[in-house]
Amino acid sequence: MTGTATVALRRHRDRRALLLIGGAAVLTLLAALWSLGVGAVAIPVDVIVNTLFNLDGEKQTYIIMRSRLPRIVLALMAGGALALSGTIIQAVIRNPLASPGIIGINSGAALFAVGMTILLPTVPQTWLPLAASLGGLTAAGIVMLVAHRRLLSAAHLALIGVAVGFVFESGVDYFLITSSDAERSAPLIWLTGSLWGRTWDHVGMSLAPLAVLAGMAMVLAYRLDLITLGEATATGLGLDVGRQRLIMLSVATLLASVSVAVVGVMGFIGLMAPHIARHLIGGGHRLLLPLAMLVGMLLVTLADGVGRAIAPPIEVSAGILSALIGAPFFVYVMLTTASEQET
Amino acid sequence: MSITLRGVTAGYGRDRAVISGIDMEIRDGEVTILIGPNGCGKSTLLKTVGRLLKPRAGTIRVDELDVLGSNPKTVARAIAYLPQDPLVPAAITVEQLVGYGRAPHQSLLGLRSARDNEHIEHAIAVAGIGHLRDRPVAELSGGQRQSAFFAMVLAQDTPYAILDEPTNHLDITHQIETLELIRRLNGEHSKTAIVVLHDLNLAARYADRLVLMKDGAIRADGPPQAVLTALNIAEVFAVDSRIIADPIYGKPLCVPYPTGHG
């Protein structure tokens, strides 16, 4: 192949990647706009646009600016964070079935968040991301420690993650059941991945950490490429595999934990988004990470919007909807990877 | 230049050491091939030099560079290591894979320089995989895949290349192709290669120097004629054999037979 043909081909590929990422961004924006309009009070798109640019009446302004906009911003933030987390974890563990939920991070974060709310009611809610991060790190730490000691395979690691996740989940259930104080436990409904009742406060306490972590994820992109080559090849290419793995898993754990702290456990987003993105754009993380992030944003925004559109004024939580789609997706991925490994 | 091993002892977990007290010098410009029965420690030795396994004792040096104590990237600019059956990542093209060979020469962001691109193009051309460059590695045949990984090692542009059973799972056509490529890299690109092979006769044909191992120690070391002898084969593999000169290259050819048939 001649040099010019090569360059032309590469340019074509770059353009396709840019189109995909741009397309995903536009779709996400449209979904967010649509989602602003649906719910107990339906609001037409032209009114939404007017309101966003501060041109319309008070009632819409209240609903949109105070109730719907913050939850949609949170949906975007959480979806992006979970997708980045899942992409990193799948690369490090080299397992297409891995995700923040599967290796126990979500449950760990949820347990610490609930624990803080119930055991330390005087601590301000702005500490939730920190508590959840501690929980996520604890769960991930246990899983990694057990796996590391015994030099376990990727499949075993996922199994340990599921087991550890169960322990933390039953802890959450314990808190929810034993706290007879309805006033305190009722707000904990959000832990099931609901964006109901989310405010600008939640955006405020999670935006800065998530932005920093997302930036770190992007900086890790090339090293993630190398780590997917496996420990042996990556070591041969001069990567300090042990240290890099620790950094990567920490970033992934914090991304998922902070998102759990503000929107609860949104299962399967961290599994689905990387898969869809990898299928579209290939395995290079410099392009995969941004696209996966956008797909995650789109999925959560849609799940939240659809949940409000099904039967207003009743809401189906985004966590439930994403699990409804995600669980079959998980089985599908498991079946297709199994058949690939047989060949 | 040379790689020097002094008193290298290594093993896995808390088990008994697989190799112990290995002293060895990999001389520049040679193709050194390690042979020996399963579990003799030849792959373990390569893994130790490739920094995949931390030795319990001993030192490994490339000239003045301490392989075990130095920055991994610095070492990776001197020694390339290709594991046995390297894992194939999902959705990575041949061109991307070859590009990863440049990692030790790049910052952690992996931005390619013009020099990186030159090395990548050169490696793809030498390995003869230009027609495969945009194919996903996972979809290639075993032989094509091996060529792609070889191109990655080439792009790494190191004086030394460690290859752990590069002919594993390949048919005879691709085995010969792979070994010819190693010879060519040695001859035309003055690369020093350290290779583990199972096939004694192919090892004898392609090696400048054969190292015969048993029970974690070196039993014989030298040119193929000196190492591949009936006596050594009997001692290390517990099998009788007759060594003849192969009719084309005149290298030693081992014809094993069950005891009592000689």
Account of the 3D structure:
The complex is a heterodimer of chains A (343) and B (262). Chain A is mainly α. Chain A is built from 14 helices and no strands. The model of chain A is unreliable at 339-343 (pLDDT under 50). Chain B has 262 residues and is of the alpha/beta class. Chain B folds into two domains: 2-78 and 158-257, Rossmann fold (3-Layer(aba) Sandwich); 86-157, no CATH class. Chain B has nine helices and twelve strands. Chain B has helices spanning 42-49, 72-76, 94-100, 114-126, 142-155, 172-188, 200-206, 224-227, 230-237; strands spanning 2-10, 19-27, 31-35, 57-62, 65-66, 79-82, 160-164, 192-196, 209-214, 217-222, 240-245, 252-257. A six-stranded mixed sheet of chain B has the order 6-7-8-3-9-10, sandwiched between helices. In chain B, strands 2-1-4-5 form a four-stranded antiparallel sheet. In chain B, strand 9 and strand 10 (217-222) form a beta hairpin. The relative contact order of chain B is 0.16. At the A-B interface, helix 1, helix 9 and helix 10 of A face helix 2, strand 6 and helix 3 of B.
What shape does the CA trace of chain B take? globular
**Unreliable stretches of chain A:** 339-343
Q: Structural class of the secondary structure composition of chain B?
A: alpha/beta
Number of helices of chain A: 14
Biggest β-sheet strands, sense, barrel of chain A: none
User: What does the radius of gyration of chain B come to?
Assistant: 19 Å
Oligomer: heterodimer
Largest sheet of chain B: 6 strands, mixed
Structural class of chain A: mainly alpha
Q: What is the gist of this entry?
A:
By secondary structure, chain A is mostly helical. Chain A has 14 helices and no strands.
